[in-house]
Design goal:
It is a single chain. This protein is α/β, with parallel strands linked by helices. Helix content is 33%, strand content 25%. The protein has 10 helices and 17 strands. The strands form 3 sheets. Strands 16-15-14-13-7-12-11-8-17 form a 9-stranded mixed beta sheet. Strands 3-2-1-4-5-6 form a 6-stranded parallel beta sheet, with helices on both faces. Helix 8 crosses helix 10. The termini are far apart.
Length: 387
Amino acid sequence: MKQLRVGMIGYKFMGKAHSNAYRSLPMFFPQAALKPQMTAICGRNEAAVQEAAAQFGWQESVTDWRELVARDDIDLIDINAPSDAHKEIALAAAKAGKHIFCEKPLALSLADSREMLEAAEAAGILHMVGFNYRFSPAVQLVKKLVDSGRLGKIYHFRAWFLQDWILDPEFPLVWRLQKEIAGSGSHGDLGAHLIDLAHYLVGDMQEVIGMSETFVKERPLASTMTGLSARASADAPKGPVTVDDATLFLARFGNGALGSFEATRFAAGHRSTNAFEINGSLGSVRFDFERMNELDVYFTSDGEDVQGFRRVLATDPAHAYSEAWWPPGHTIGFEHTFTHEMLELSNAVSEGRQPVPNFRDGVKCQAVLEAVERSIDERRWIQISEM
């Protein structure tokens, strides 16, 4: 198996997920065209990135991403650093002729994401963006049902991504709550996944209108806290929260379908409820990532006496990726979506084609994110073509 030499920038949540995927790919998908070689991992904290390299299985660690991008022994740059770093790293990687995998959202703004796409296309490199939920077997089944026409004409796509991890007003002001670093809050972090699933499963959006709210306006500075679970004292210095805590919007698709979207970090009891429902003229489907191996399916053609949603366990060989894992009924988890993602990347690089989803999908998602923000500011419907 030929090798794909990887240099990765970032080593925390997504860094661990990507590292696990690189290590798992050749074991479970020996037919993958390229075997990832985990050449070097990069992070600003030397001790922490050295520890991550040893734990995750990277050959070495560095603290300067520019050094990593310039190396001749690396084919692919994997970017999972905070969002404000994506553009600069991607532009440098493209200039150096490296293929790029970049976590979502692609950039802080639509203009920046377009610049990244243009640079990648000008350099002739291959590029991919990290919308991993596409790669759940149950979501792949939804795609199959929609594309084959078994759900008929699509009328509705409704989606919600609900979390509660910042419900405590004393939770510290981490980078995800600062617009200059994250770009947006629940909208770009959670809503971006819903937007991509909508694009993937239903089609392009035509117009949107939205609303948002920041429920907790100030939070204790993270530098004053000893850990994310700690509580600040009453007189601890605070800083402003500059992103949304919750964003909701409506959409009209180009094919006439209607959409509703909700992303919030203030839904008590919801650790990570990433769910959607699609209604068509011939049936419906319901998916919730907290039960990611299951898909609820309803067909109008069923006899009246047995009509109703049925539970399909997407673990049989008929379902995408399932033959590589365990016997039917033996479920998989969150980490497996990243392995499937890297399978697509590996095969695309070997075949010389653009992986899917790629920077074009990232730009398309960013256009909707910004159209929603603009609609909130201007209190009106915004055409995606305006963006």
